[in-house]
Design brief:
heterodimer; A: 346 residues; alpha/beta; 6-stranded mixed β-sheet; 4-stranded mixed β-sheet; elongated; B: 422 residues; 8 helices; 25 strands; 21% helix; globular
């Protein structure tokens, strides 16, 4: 198995910060920590070349330098590329991660980097590359190299990795189903018992981090604003002509309200499996209150109402997909010069 | 409360006469079943179908599934409130047709939309869907029903539930006079100094018609959390009536819930089971959710609980009730370990939870329910030629998320599914 190792100028033995702008270069065989890594690989793999670059240069000009580094790596015709370990060094970590990501994308070759879990590069790149967690400083060099050797051999053989906790890499942001011996209830009882006894325990579902949306300031002059109606309620024209899904919607839709003062019973139906829609079928304005906003516009309390409403179905929405719908709807609202939105949730 | 549950396993079922149970073989007399079902004019017709594990069978329009129970010669019936007066069950002797289920299969007579629209759970008896599908590892009789003179879907639903429970009672009673394969004893009494007292918080769903649960014969909408002995559930105190695809907890899971079995097995040795708190999920607003959450925490305190095992019947809205309950328990000083199903999208790269509280630090996963499955064509379909909510032809290959399989979340808990980071 042919392995190429990426290092910064320091670990390549060229020099410290004064050489941080050193351009990319390469040498055949193992260099610096690569020598110890080669010993760990034994006869199973050979470090055929080492490619290096100054941390400052790759940090400042990745667009220019990374393609050159990939070309140098490609010249060694590797089966797998390893980078680092960068430990807690931010610029080195970013360099390793960018090189690995580019190797994967352009050469379609497996690549892994090693660095501390709180290295700034981890959160930026863990979804696209394999990262071996290390200590924050070079004190953990032997352990880091052992883990790199183990995973490099597996990736180089074309194997796919098992769970992050078992195979020892930073989770790539994907959760896959598997089976345990015990029911989930029995495993929860075991977690509870460990906690009550003061023994160590580890949740099976790390809590996610969600964005917080800061509300915009109030509309300065409602009497001049253009208002639009947006909703995830699934209200669509009768017959659901655009086939909005009642669950996990893959689309959003815009329906015209030109000349419509009141949504008539029978003209609309609900494509949404998550709430009791009987009241809305009776009077669709209960979901998309066209009658009320038209009245406000007539009385001058608001400026005008956009002659269309935007709708998707929020039932079991996949968060990433819903965020895309929202961005697209927001962009369309801007094109329509909308100042404010009445967002009807169900 | 002392309960003996005598297990009469069913390995093979057939239609014929006379109706009999004999050493794992169950003979079902269709004439008797017809009489029991058609006793109610709200049902016009019934056809019987059987399916065993591993058969190339797909079942559509499955509502609830019941493991038959019968209490021989007792003043209190199994499924109290339905098969007898609503008197406290959970003691004495119960016969159980282990591994067998009576499943209702039907369309509803009147059109409905929104949450009242029918979202079937698909049962796959073999292939890649079987691992996630309730009833796939059981011997099943399907009562394929035709609506009769019901005045509403709710009225018809009531007829269907009562008919299936009558049939279940008749079948379980066939074991009278036979020797059980084994007898389990459930008794959660005694004093166990030095053992942690653990309550099980069993949040079940009641959103309205078609998404309902029954406790002692009455729907739980409007119910405050209440305390039961686990034995009451083993005798059928809770009956499921939630017809939302994968998220339903069918009656056979309520009567043999993995939480109950896990806690009972440890009672007196590792911990002390301090009761079951049955709570409603899917309150209409924040006020009612908070009120219910704090009632659960208060009842757990009254039960002198040191810890709580919390489970809930999906999905999004009920998850908020659930997390508020976990928070209320933790703030009352009662650590809560919970079972949650995950989302995450088809690839598992979307956030896994609808909602959470920072106190939810001990969660067990039942796996991601929106990963997709490619299901092959099947030889036999029960319950219609096309899927109720998708309209696709039922025989052919299907591409479905796991959550559209019958009772997927409860089944994944029972069989040990979980999601792990990759």
């Amino acid at each position: 198995m042919r392995i190429v190792h990426y290092l910064n100028q320091f670990f390549a033995g060229i020099g410290g910060e004064e050489h941080a702008d050193m351009p990319p270069g390469s040498r055949p065989g193992a260099v610096g920590p690569g020598l110890a890594l080669q010993k760990l690989l034994g006869g199973n793999g050979e470090i055929v070349g080492t490619v290096f670059c100054g941390d400052g240069l790759i940090g400042d000009r990745p667009d220019v330098v990374v393609p050159d580094i990939v070309t140098l790596i490609d010249a060694f015709a590797p089966d797998v590329v390893v980078a680092g370990p960068a430990f807690g060094a931010g610029r080195y970590g970013l360099g390793c991660a960018r090189v690995c990501a580019a190797v994967g994308a352009r050469l379609r070759i497996a690549a892994l980097a090693a660095m501390a879990p709180d290295n700034v590069a981890v959160e930026l790149h863990r979804r696209e590359i394999v990262i071996v967690p290390t200590t924050a400083t070079a004190v953990g060099m032997p352990g880091a190299l052992a883990a790199m050797a183990r995973l490099a051999l597996r990736l180089g053989r074309g194997e796919s990795l098992g769970p992050a906790a078992i195979d020892g890499y930073v989770p790539r942001g994907r959760r896959m189903n598997t089976w345990a011996q015990a029911s989930a209830s029995a495993r929860a009882v075991a977690l509870l018992q460990a906690r009550l006894r003061g023994e160590p325990f580890s949740t099976e579902v790390p809590l996610p981090r969600y964005d917080r949306v800061t509300p915009p300031p109030p509309v300065a002059d409602p009497a001049r604003m253009r208002l639009a109606l947006v909703t995830e309620c699934g209200l669509v024209p009768a017959g659901n002509p655009d086939h909005l899904e009642w669950v996990r919607a893959s689309k959003w839709l815009r329906y015209g309200l030109d000349g419509v003062d009141d949504l008539a019973r029978g003209d609309y139906e609900v494509a949404h499996g998550g709430y009791d829609a009987a009241f809305a079928v009776e009077d669709p304005d209960r979901l998309v209150p066209v009658d009320a906003v038209r009245e406000l516009a007539r009385s001058g309390e608001i400026g005008e109402v956009l002659d269309a409403y935007y709708v998707t179905c929020g039932n079991h929405g996949v968060l990433g997909q819903m965020a895309t719908h929202a961005r697209e709807i927001a962009a369309d609202l801007r094109r329509q010069h909308v100042d404010a939105v009445l967002l009807v949730a169900t | 409360m002392h309960l003996e549950v005598a297990a009469f396993p069913v390995h093979q079922a057939r239609l014929g006469a006379p109706a009999a149970y004999d050493a794992g073989a169950l003979t079902i007399d269709p004439d008797i079943v017809r009489r029991l079902v058609l006793d109610d004019p709200r049902i016009a017709d019934v056809q019987l179908e059987l399916a065993h594990p591993g058969e190339s069978v797909r079942v559509l329009r499955a509502l609830d599934a019941i493991e038959p129970l019968h209490k021989p010669g007792a003043a209190v019936s199994a499924f109290p409130g339905f098969l007898g007066p609503p008197r406290t069950a959970g003691h004495g002797l119960t016969h159980r047709l282990a591994g067998f289920t009576v499943v209702q299969v039907t369309d509803f007579p009147f059109p409905a939309s929104g949450v009242q629209a029918f979202e079937e759970g698909v049962i796959e008896m073999s292939g890649p869907g079987a691992a996630y599908s309730g009833c796939a590892d059981r011997v099943n009789v399907f009562l394929v029903l035709t609506p009769g003179r019901a005045v509403s879907n709710v009225d018809y639903d009531d007829a269907v539930r009562r008919a299936a429970l009558r049939v279940a009672d008749h079948l379980a009673a066939l074991t009278i006079g036979h020797v059980p394969e084994h007898v389990e004893t459930f008794d959660h009494g005694g004093e166990h100094a030095g053992r942690h007292r653990v309550v099980w918080v069993h949040q079940v769903r009641a959103q309205g018609p078609m998404v309902q649960s029954f406790l002692y014969g009455e729907q739980i909408s409007g119910m405050l959390p209440t305390v039961l002995d686990p034995n009451e559930l083993l005798d059928g105190a809770l009956v499921g009536a939630n017809y939302k695809t994968g998220s339903k907890t069918p009656t056979y899971v309520h009567t043999r819930h993995p939480s109950l079995l896990a806690l009972s097995a440890r009672h007196g040795r590792e911990l002390h089971v301090a009761g079951v708190i049955v709570a409603r999920g899917h309150h209409e607003n924040e006020f009612l959710k908070e009120r219910s959450a704090h009632f659960v925490a208060k009842l757990a305190t009254v039960q002198r609980a040191d810890g709580a095992l919390c489970t809930y019947e999906a999905t999004g809205n009920t998850h908020i009730d659930f997390m508020l309950t976990v928070q209320a328990l933790e703030r009352a000083g009662i650590p809560a370990a919970s079972v949650v199903h995950e989302y995450g999208g088809p690839l598992g790269d979307d956030p896994p939870l609808v909602d959470f509280v920072p106190e939810a630090i001990t969660l067990a996963s039942t796996g991601g329910i929106d990963r997709r499955l490619s299901l092959p064509a099947v030889d036999r379909v029960i319950g219609g030629a096309r899927l109720a909510h998708r309209g696709e032809p039922a025989h052919g290959p299907l591409d479905l998320p796991i959550q559209e399989l019958f009772a997927a979340t409860a089944t994944m808990n029972e069989r040990g599914a979980l999601a792990v980071d990759y």
